[in-house]
């Protein structure tokens, strides 16, 4: 289970409204390679992990992604909470405003509600950890696209932090994958991927 | 942000495989009225809450729902991890097994991947808190349907715990709603729901 | 069954094209808290209602929401039917035009096709009626957001009518909920929510 | 707008529970070629129809499909309302029961919630009416598949009625298509499908 | 199976960036009436076709639609590959860029990922071929809408080619339908659509 | 573009009906890690590849996945085409039959229509190729789950062939990734991932 800590993993202090940036940054809230996708993926996969280190990695990173989700929600919230309707319309955020006001709702930049179809949990640690390497790459690429389009340091700094954390996660999953591969090569009573037909 | 605690909110110790029960209990993992829907809803809505009490309620309950999500994942995992393929086929879980093995993946009982379309965050505390009352009702009803179909006390006990927590959440959201309604009736500089056209 | 009456519940006479407003008003045609969602929800739930008054309420309001759906379609249609391609592009409606021309198709403001995942029918009148209170709140909030962004009285007047009808529906569902709660408290042969295991 | 008539278009009087049949018949409630898809398609397309006859046809048939939707809901309801949990499990309806009890909710036989992606409204009467011919064919084929799997005359009779109505609809849309094609061949001031670039 | 030929069915040589056009043309890549929908529909239906001519038609046209899919991808790619971020933002393509950079991903103009819910394969040749007539009509209408909004001959020429091929496909499916209808009218040992109950 | 060759990549000759196996094998037609997902992913990504070898790999493997898609469709078709309705019901395939008869339609084993949300094309070769390694792993795992549940050699043989091809694809994508990484390390005029802000 989790204890909620009443502070963000990294401070978000945005002074200027920018609904145009909010419109795209929200894709790391509810989009295909965002923090919700990441957290849900790792916290679901953990049940199938074999080694204590892999289980802990999934729990840790899955938990950190929740903090990232909270950060992204804070960024979007601060970018729109004081925006006037005129600014919202000018930024192309009027479609989102019609259904969610200035609230936070999990969608991609296009406005498509989050779907678990974005992620996979295959019941197989090698497969899952490889999926996670790809996931962290995709998340990092998205942060780079978002940083490309931002110009406010208040926004760029936390996005850069989030991008760097993806790099660290990539390394940790790579390490977990190596450990699981080693574990599976040693002879054991229960071996993964033996066909269930051998009973 | 969150700290992960390495224990479940309520113990899950299931001695007997039962993939047929796993097949339906998973709906409280990834289904329309399940714990993921609940957690995501409350943790998203918190950004729009007006009173400290409402923000805290959304954070607390949203965090507890994560623990519930973990419990439901544990129940499903324990019900299938030792099930043979024959049991899996007999239980009608072969479709799930084809795509996820014995892993945990967020779907409804029907096998439909989770979608944020199940939830709403409207940027309006009164509306959101009313939504939450309905959500807790729906979650409770689902637990009752699941309990109706279960016969293993190892399964029924945690399901009953989860159902009772929904009742408590319902009461807490009702309280939060009353406090927000009172707050909004007092005259203030910034009043919610004044048309943005009055600028 | 239904008889079609060849007039709108409230007149729609829009003199000026405005594809930008059409783009967002269509969310009450095919969006999460729109008239299609409402109608489908109530007309589906009616099969599980216990009291004649609740069944009638679901039928009445579900039928009225169809009239509202027709009104929203008329508003959108009148806002685009004479709009030039230049106006359509300028308004950001070119994506919709590519797939639907100037026709009416059930999407949210973001362009996401309607999904029944937006609604619930739980087979339990108390739960369903609570869901309906929340639904009417959400619909009303959406109309307020749309009214905030409108400036043409030809558009604002019918939107205000639709918003006021949501308030009336909210009250009627509240009344139906109270009647069902009273009904369920009186002792009867068949009692809802008794566990099916007691047979 | 519509007036609700408190009787079904065709009587549904089912004496025997059969949740296995309910499980598949519901696809004509919320599935790809069902009555909701049909009604929504025609009532949306009507805004783009050119001739009074085509508009009337869309309104009439769209309205009749609502009556059919109500019939299908009644069939499913009567097949499950007295079914015991044992019968429900045996029939493979336990997944649906977990999320909806014995209520009515718009899904396909597979349990996938209805999506407007099943239908199209193209803003072009010729295209739309051709789509409708295909839609009526698909609906008819589904009724034949359902009739193939049914053995209770109480169920087969209304299904046959519904299938025959699809045949009538097919003919009426064919007629509407011919009239619109004739209409479009006569020289007029406003001609459909002239490129908008000619302004 | 297929052999890949390293040339496009029709040359695409676009000299000028235009992310605004890319934004809508992509709907024929991943949208409801696009080339992916078409190809997938015909290549899936072929398994149920009765006559050699119908099977061949589905294979041929399904294969040609793959070439069209490739053409549409090339058009979009050439329209964005040299576009600056400023042009991308100005064109309203920043949402797509956030999740896919300048890559090609199957979405509609609105940004909704492709879903097979757009198509049907009914296991019945008459129904399927009627569906295909409608599909070709809808595809053609979309190309006309796109051509309406384009002004670059480098873009209009291939779009016109694609539109004309839809007309040819419509005619070929009409022919296949007639042949299948004739085939089914002649008496045979195996007759399609006889109720399976006659065994 | 493509030329259609009128033979399967690997022969499918299935002598015995088995709708229960068809029900799950179809997940490699329309499911999250199936052949349609694979083909669509690689043929979409090719537009963003940098090296001739990577482009060719995407085209080759994407084209081979089409042949695999055709094989899976053939397997499912042969498993159901002669199955009686009784066998279909007993196998739990009656839901699929209601909407598609004995036809082939792209769904997962659960009956969920294919969605492009299963795949990603990120506009970045390193990211895309890493995604592809994970995709091939997931496809292979699915084939192992299916082989676990099969007992007919006519079915197991082609499934094993398909699984082995995934292994080969994994190796080819690994090789392509290494070549692209080398390419990107050498100094060049056009460098990928330089922030667009440097203009």
Could you explain how this protein is built, in words?
Six copies of one chain form a homohexamer. The first copy, chain A, has helices at residues 19-25, 27-30, 35-45, 52-80, 85-90, 94-100, 125-149, 153-185; one strand at residues 2-4. Chain A is mainly alpha-helical and 199 residues long. Chain A has one domain (19-190): Ferritin, core subunit, four-helix bundle (Ferritin), CATH 1.20.1260.10. Chains in contact: A-B, A-C, A-E, A-F, B-C, B-D, B-F, C-D, C-E, D-E, D-F, E-F. At the A-B interface, strand 1, helix 3 and helix 4 of A face strand 1, helix 3 and helix 4 of B.
Briefly say what this structure is.
6 copies of one chain form a homohexamer. With 199 residues, chain A is mainly α.
Key phrases:
homohexamer, 199 residues, elongated, 61% helix
In terms of topology, how is this protein built?
Six copies of one chain form a homohexamer.
Chain A: E1 2-4, H1 19-25, H2 27-30, H3 35-45, H4 52-80, H5 85-90, H6 94-100, H7 125-149, H8 153-185
Helix pairs in contact in A: 1-4, 3-4, 3-7, 4-8, 7-8
Quantity of strands of chain A, as a count: 1
Greatest chain-chain interface? Answer: A-B, 53 and 53 residues
Number of helices of chain A: 8
Q: What is the CATH C level class of chain A, in words?
A: Mainly Alpha
- How would you sum up the global shape of chain A? elongated
